Amino acid sequence: MRKTKFSSGEYYHIFNRGVDKREIFSDNNDLARFFQSMSEFNTKEPIGSIFENSFRDSALGGRAAKSKKLVNFICFCLNPNHYHFVLEQVADNGIQKFMHRLGGGYTWYFNNKNKRNGVLFQGKYKSVHIGTNEYLLHMSAYVNLNNKVHQLGGSAAKLTMSSWKEYFKNDKEGFCNKEIILRQFNGTEEYKNFAGDSLRSIREKKEMEKILLE
């Protein structure tokens, strides 16, 4: 039984990685498909596959964009072998429904593309309740900059996608509900400085943990 009890109006850190730490994104097409899934599976209405939904949306004039959501994305980061979300649940059982669709749909796509069978993710996604505003602010920095937390380089650095850049666009109709974070700062530059300080603190903590474990 899942330890975290999800409640509407509350915020949660959701994350998972590939089974045996394997890559879940092998190219930019995989990243694009997962991001598309994040959008299209986030609806209270019944939905089939993304392929089926494309025909339904066309016939109904973009139904998915207008439908009621299960969750609000605050921020996200997709890395080659794992992902992080900060979500607000906005419908009853919204996180469970959304994550079930996302995990199943993407696994089907990935297995079909790569002619493989079996599970793709390492068990059920992990979840942590974000119970305070301070925790929410720091978690937004951690997730927005998660690729930098892991200091990914080379080809791995190119197989990442996050909401970080969206936080500095004037578009209020973007993918994420970033205003819950940004309205607490005097402009995006102040948030950038806050996130940078938070990142440095996280890196220092990780380095200290390595030293203590040696």
In a nutshell, what does this entry contain?
The chain contains nine helices and five strands; from the N terminus they run βαααββαβαααβαα. It is of the alpha+beta class and 214 residues long.
Label the structural class: alpha+beta
Number of strands: 5
Proportion of residues in extended strands: 5-15%
Q: Which superfamily, in CATH terms, is the homologous superfamily?
A: Transposase IS200-like
**Sheet with the most strands?**
5 strands, antiparallel
Q: How many separate structural domains?
A: 1
CATH fold-level topology: Alpha-Beta Plaits
Tell me the name of the CATH class.
Alpha Beta
Question: What is the number of helical segments per DSSP (H or I, 4+ residues)?
Answer: 9
Q: Which blocks of ≥5 consecutive residues have pLDDT under 50?
A: 58-65
Q: Please tell me the CATH architecture by its name.
A: 2-Layer Sandwich
